Amino acid sequence: MPGVGPRSAERIALWMVQSRGDQPEEISRAISTTRETVRPCPQCGFFTMQELCEICADPTRAADQLCVVEQPTDILPLEKTSAFRGRYHSLGGRISPLDHIGPEDLRINELVARVQGGGFAEVILALAADVEGQATTNYVVELLKPLAVTITRIAHGLPVGGGLESADELTLYQALSARTKL
Amino acid sequence: MPGVGPRSAERIALWMVQSRGDQPEEISRAISTTRETVRPCPQCGFFTMQELCEICADPTRAADQLCVVEQPTDILPLEKTSAFRGRYHSLGGRISPLDHIGPEDLRINELVARVQGGGFAEVILALAADVEGQATTNYVVELLKPLAVTITRIAHGLPVGGGLESADELTLYQALSARTKL
Fold it and tell me: How far apart are the CA of B46 and the nearest CA of chain A, in angstroms?
């Protein structure tokens, strides 16, 4: 399990064997239940226990904004900001030729079909600010361009709280190039 | 000296005393010479040994773009990006009431006078993306607004190379709010 090294694993194993209570059994059941009931939402790829996930099923959320992310786990930090109240679409990864991940391995066709289905005024691409995230962004933009929808990308630049001396060269370059009018 | 702890200091001191060559003397002379000859440029606040600094004196640099930074040391990382070929203005700090630094302690009047002097089409504010940097940015913007000049700010958002999961909440909020059209 991630974050559990050999020493922790040994300690957990011994605790499980020596424990007199029901806790190890309960953990085992919880794992099985989670594996059985939590599935990816067929519409957006987020986690769900129902037909659709909580976000897709929420009628109070804006239905005209779609935020595209790489992984379903990227939805959690975005939700924490409370800055976005639209819908999501997780691609399930990014284009990465070195890892043999091409566009056909991602949920890009589903994205195009969803946008073609209509109703979206804006598609926000919230992919990573590295080479592969950028390549995936460009690929998706090319596919969405012919559709009648505004395509935006989250801002790349100086992270909040940081000074110029702590920023790397590429970030500063990006921050200067994408400066905003006040 | 910054970065020199008690152990390093002791080692350096012993080396200076025991050294048979001229090196300690040379270092002493270099320090004195630097202290005597390197002064802040009267125009922009950067380091110089001449009347004006290299950047202010360079006729090949654009004279219609002015980049405002907090410290003269902020000019070095910006120069490394090669993204900016205009002039600079260092404020010598940022407004920070807790440290008893007000607008009158900074080179803000000099900035306004310089922009009033004319010739600048754009003033780019490249201050830190934290509370004090933001407050200083707002203060300067209020003063420059009446002048006929475009005011921009470097982009705040996701640092280059980073994914969504490594970004903090405020940065993600900023990145979402300041998203750019593609």
Answer: 15
